[in-house]
Amino acid sequence: MQENTRIKRAVITGATGAIGMALLQELIASGTEVLVLCREGSVRNTQIPQHPLIRTMECSLDKMSELKADFGRKANGESDGEFSGYLSQKYDVFYHFAWEGTTGSARNDMFLQNRNVKYALDAVELAARLGCETFVGAGSQAEYGPVQGKLSPETPTFPVTGYGIAKLCAGQMTRERAHQLGMKHIWVRVLSVYGPFDGKQSMVMSGIYRLIDGEIPAYTKGEQQWDYLFSRDAARAFRMVGEKGSDGVYCLGSGRVRPLREYMELIRRAVDENAQIGLGKLPYAENQVMYLCADIQKLTEDTGFLPEVSFEEGITETVKWCREH
Predict the structure, then answer these.
(1) Of 123, 168, 196, 284, which cross-links 96 as Cys (Cβ 3.0–4.6 Å)?
(2) Looking at the predicted structure, is the pLDDT value of residue 160 above 70?
């Protein structure tokens, strides 16, 4: 395990998702100053916490290449939050979560996914201009394609979707560019994360909202063995890799699997003991992943990370959040 190095200043793109929002809370708790680069005009920007340690700047992915660093401008009274195309402070770690086309047919929009690769490279360039020592990118289990056994950094990658292909390409190309620019590069391949602020299209969130609305959510038979991790645990892992992770790839999950139908049943109970769920109402998708589990040994060895929140605890908190929002 490497010596702990507290992050003094961090940059985050895509901070309004489940992991990003939880990571903001993690970094606030550790006393880290955070610059959030958020999409112009997005209604989700209002979710970003108002806190003395957090500054926001509207800067869509296609504008990152225009941001420049001028570390003397702060003395002239210019705020980072006023988008002049300049940033006036140096940062330690750059977290890149932002990604377009993560659901539905957009996952196989090859031109859209190809743009995401360029944006990831733009993020690396910006991280270097801001003086970052470490670039942390959010990868995906989709980079592997259908495989047998636990997913580890050494598992061969054969993605079958445009999304997976682009994530794999982004991870490889940003690594090379980060090294050329003298930065440490960490790529975290995320499995199934759930929690507050997650998108409504996910299996967990769509099921919760349908049950809250008195509907009967339709599922497959739920025989898949899947690995779910609560967003707060995922955020803690990202903080820890930013502090003491090694250059390279990590897999992020709980490291444990349960049949999908068990997760569905726990969701039902958390919403309404008397509700019903439609197990077996949907056919399995083409190329259905039947086993999905992260090997987190390297992550644990390097950072000390271990999951702390059980699915039962996490889903109770998530249902409460959904009812309130």
Answers:
(1) 123
(2) yes
Predicted confidence at residue 272, as pLDDT, reads 96
Reference 321, options 270, 279, 286, 255; nearest CA is 270
Residue 310 CB contacts under 8 Å (≥ 6 apart), including other chains: none
pLDDT tens digits, 261-285: 999 999 999 999 999 999 999 999 8
Cα–Cα distance, 217 to 268 (Å, whole number): 10
273/268 Cα distance (integer angstroms):
7
For 201, phi then psi, to 5°, come to: -85, -15
H or E element at residue 52 = none
Q: Is 148 exposed, middle or buried (0-12, 13-18, 19+ CB in 10 A)?
A: exposed
- Rounded Cα distance, 296 and 290, in Å: 19
Give the mean model confidence (pLDDT) for residues 100-105: 93
Contact yes or no for 194/254 (Cβ under 8 A): no
Segment (H or E) for 311: helix 311-324
Q: Rounded to the nearest 5°, which phi and psi values hold at 281?
A: -80, -20
Q: What is the pLDDT of residue 78?
A: 43
**C-alpha pair distances (Å), 297 with each of 9, 47, 253, 300, 303:** 28, 34, 11, 5, 10
First-to-final CA distance of the chain: 40
